[in-house]
Amino acid sequence: MEHTVNATDARIHFGELMHRAVEEGEPIIVERAGKAHVVVLSMDVYQRLLEGQRQESWQDLVERARAQIRLDLAGRKLPSPDEILRQTREERDAQLVDLR
After folding, report:
1. Which of 28, 70, 81, 95 has the most CB atoms within 10 Å of its CB?
2. Distances from the Cα of 62 to the Cαs of 4, 19, 77, 80, 87, in angstroms?
3. What is the per-residue pLDDT across 10-67, written as a single tens digit (0 to 9) for each?
4. Residue-range domain boundaries for the chain
5. What distance in Å separates the CA atoms of residue 23 and residue 27, rounded to the nearest whole number?
6. Contact assessment for residue 1 and residue 29, using Cβ atoms and an 8 Å cutoff
């Protein structure tokens, strides 16, 4: 649960706010003139937020997809592209015949 304090109280009780953020993992919202201005977070929470923002490069995504495909195949070989096209065309032709 988050906790809200005004800027003056945050300045006076900053050590207490740090303890609350670290020990209780609770974000502290600091307001000025009734509007939220900053948040005090523990370093653990901050690191988790940063990790959530990191975006993988397209090369990393491709490599991760390849690794997943290798796992899913479990040593089996994929059919050749020519075979896949042949099967796809046969399925399409069968569907077209059924529509008549």
Report:
1. 28
2. 44, 43, 19, 20, 26
3. 999 999 999 999 998 889 999 999 999 999 999 998 888 888 777 778 888 899 898 9
4. 3-50, 55-99
5. 11
6. no
**Which residues are 30's β-sheet partners?**
5, 38
Q: CA 19 → CA 28, 52, 54, 86, distances in Å?
A: 11, 24, 28, 67
Residue with tokens 């307001």: 31
Q: What's the rounded Cα separation, in Å, for the pair 20 and 2?
A: 10
- Ramachandran bin of 42, using left for φ above 0, alpha for ψ from -120 to 50, beta for the remaining angles: beta
pTM for the whole thing?
0.50
Q: Which residue has the tokens 């303890």?
A: 19
What is the dotted CATH code of the domain comprising 3-50? 3.40.1620.10
What is the token pair recorded at 96? 């077209």
Integer Cα distance of 23 and 2 in angstroms: 13
